[in-house]
Design a protein that fits this description.
With 313 residues, the protein is an alpha/beta fold. The chain contains 11 helices and 13 strands. The strands form 2 sheets. Strands 6, 7, 8, 9, 10, 11 and 13 form a 7-stranded mixed β-sheet that branches. The chain has a 6-stranded parallel β-sheet with strand order 2-1-3-4-5-12.
Length: 313
């Protein structure tokens, strides 16, 4: 029986409650090739990464023609040595690797080592190890930065200063977002002053403390943009500052906390990565790469972000 026909038979058996439906399903599963994908993510307790992990597992479960087992590890820090070590630990255990992380030579060396052993690595959200990794999956970060600048300069109460928060200087995606933001303002909104970016290590506490200080020193601040994590701190700082509701603010990723702030109009907008689409694309590419071999020219797959505003939530 062809695999697609077998799948339809199994689904029909489950729908009608056929007593042997489970046996049919197990037989079909046993006939499918099985692969193993290792994943490295950040911030295990953060709502966004919890959703990411869940979507990865669900996307793997939705594959009909292949069995793809997913093992997820969480880095406790953003240090390149830890990320590189987690990647290398998967050697000999998985068929492919996907990871979030910073762009650093130690990470690149780990990816190169995996590639030499026939294990492709895919970068997620923020690119790294260009030339060694097999592919990038995430948003077009330059465009995200330009779009954020367009929205903030259109919604700010008046021309003035804008502060940007980035996770770190080694996050390739954050650097591209900052570059896009500044490029747009130079070309179309020179009346706004984009201040030096502040590194927040993607933590809420550092973001909150830094923004409280900026607000105290710069009464002409009109907008805030969190290009990576740590947005909860920005939300709290603006809420605790008299007049903070008049400052335009864009953050990254839709979580219960950012959603609530948007509904209360304490945020101007939220960029959300479509995790379901990203994970589906990733799983299909992982299976194809395992079976067809690594590409001569590693590429990238841009997933268009969703922009939420108070009127669209």
């Amino acid at each position: 029986m062809r695999s697609e026909t077998a799948r339809k038979v199994s689904e029909a058996a489950e729908r009608i409650g056929y007593h042997a439906a489970n046996a049919i399903r197990q037989r079909i599963l046993s006939d499918r090739p099985e692969y193993h994908l290792g994943v490295v993510l950040q911030k295990e307790r953060h709502a966004f990464y919890q959703s990411f992990a869940a979507e990865l597992r669900e996307a793997a479960a939705r594959l009909h023609e292949r069995r793809l087992r997913v093992t997820i590890s969480f880095a406790q820090t953003s240090e390149p040595t830890e990320v590189a070590a987690l990647l290398l630990q998967m050697s000999g255990k998985v068929n492919a690797v996907a990871a979030t992380g910073i762009d650093h030579h130690e990470v690149t060396n780990a990816v190169s080592s995996l590639r030499a052993r026939g294990i492709p690595t895919f970068s997620l959200l923020s690119d790294f190890a260009q030339g060694e990794r097999e592919g990038y999956f995430g948003t077009n970060n330059m465009k995200v930065g330009r779009t954020a600048a367009w929205l903030l300069t259109k919604t700010a109460a008046r021309p003035g200063k804008i502060v940007l928060f980035i996770g770190g200087y080694r996050y390739h995606g954050h650097n591209l977002r900052e570059a896009g933001f500044r490029a747009y303002c130079r070309e179309f909104a020179p009346e706004f002053e984009v201040m030096d970016a502040i590194v927040n290590l993607e933590t809420r506490q550092l973001t909150r403390e830094a923004l409280v200080g900026v607000l105290a020193r710069h009464p002409d601040l009109v907008a805030v943009c969190c290009l990576g994590g740590g947005m909860e701190g920005a939300i709290a700082a603006l809420q605790d500052t008299p007049g903070g509701e008049k400052i335009a603010c864009i953050v990254n990723e839709l979580t219960p906390e950012s959603r609530q702030a948007l509904m209360e109009r304490r945020l101007t907008g939220i960029f959300q990565t479509p995790l379901k689409e990203l994970c589906a694309e990733l799983m299909a590419t992982v299976v194809h790469t395992i079976e067809a071999g690594m590409a001569e020219n590693p590429g990238q797959r841009f997933i268009a972000p969703v922009l939420w505003t108070p009127e669209s939530i």
